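User: Could you go from structure to sequence for me? I need the amino acid at each position, not a summary. Structure tokens:
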């Protein structure tokens, strides 16, 4: 049996922890015995036995997650995310360079039921979705961008960048085969997370540099 790689813990107190999720690890268990390895199970095995998931990152996405250690904190953090009282930013490398330096994408999204878990733009039945983006670095045939989701729809950043015509490198769901093969993983990383601590009421701000 392959030994689980520990999840890096960047901050901890009696109420919560901040972890840096590796790419290609589930946030929570999936269906079936082969999908039980995940961030929350590893964190529990690392001694945080009361850990409860608050929000998720896609299997392929790396970066910052907050995990609650008490029922009270779990409830309060869940409300912060639900009410959009958190700030998040992601970094990605996308195919080709947009002409503009920044922009806002507001295409509505919904689940593509026949191809779950994929999501699609749907102007009739989709849920309102907003992503701010800006160029950080222009490179040959690609660009490094900062992505700020205002809403938190499933696969939002991946679908919005595909809609813009600049899918994220390594995206096996939404990119053409050559763009998938341009990286050995999805080049999307949750690099910033800010919120007011629900128990101490102190503003918390965390950052994590991407490995790509």
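Assistant: Here is the amino acid at each position, in order:
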């Amino acid at each position: 049996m392959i030994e689980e790689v520990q999840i890096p813990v960047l901050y901890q107190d009696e109420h919560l922890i901040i972890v840096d999720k590796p790419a290609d690890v589930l946030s929570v268990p999936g269906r079936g015995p082969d999908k039980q390895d995940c961030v929350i199970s590893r964190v529990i095995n690392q001694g945080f036995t009361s850990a409860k998931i608050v929000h998720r990152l896609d299997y392929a996405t790396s970066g910052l997650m907050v995990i609650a250690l008490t029922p009270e904190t779990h409830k309060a953090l869940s409300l912060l995310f639900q009410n959009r009282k958190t700030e998040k930013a992601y970094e990605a490398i996308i195919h080709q360079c947009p002409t503009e330096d920044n922009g806002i994408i507001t295409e509505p999204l919904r689940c593509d039921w026949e191809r779950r878990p994929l999501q699609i733009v749907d102007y009739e039945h989709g849920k309102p979705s907003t992503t701010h983006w800006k160029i950080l670095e222009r490179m040959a045939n690609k660009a490094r961008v900062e992505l700020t989701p205002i809403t938190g729809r499933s696969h939002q950043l991946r679908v919005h960048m595909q809609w813009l015509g600049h899918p994220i490198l390594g995206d096996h769901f939404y990119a053409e085969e050559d763009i998938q093969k341009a990286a050995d993983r999805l080049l999307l990383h949750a690099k910033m997370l800010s919120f007011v601590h629900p128990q101490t009421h102190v503003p918390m701000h965390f950052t994590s540099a991407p490995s790509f």
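One structural detail worth keeping in mind: The domain at 89-188 is CATH 3.30.2350.10 (Pseudouridine synthase).
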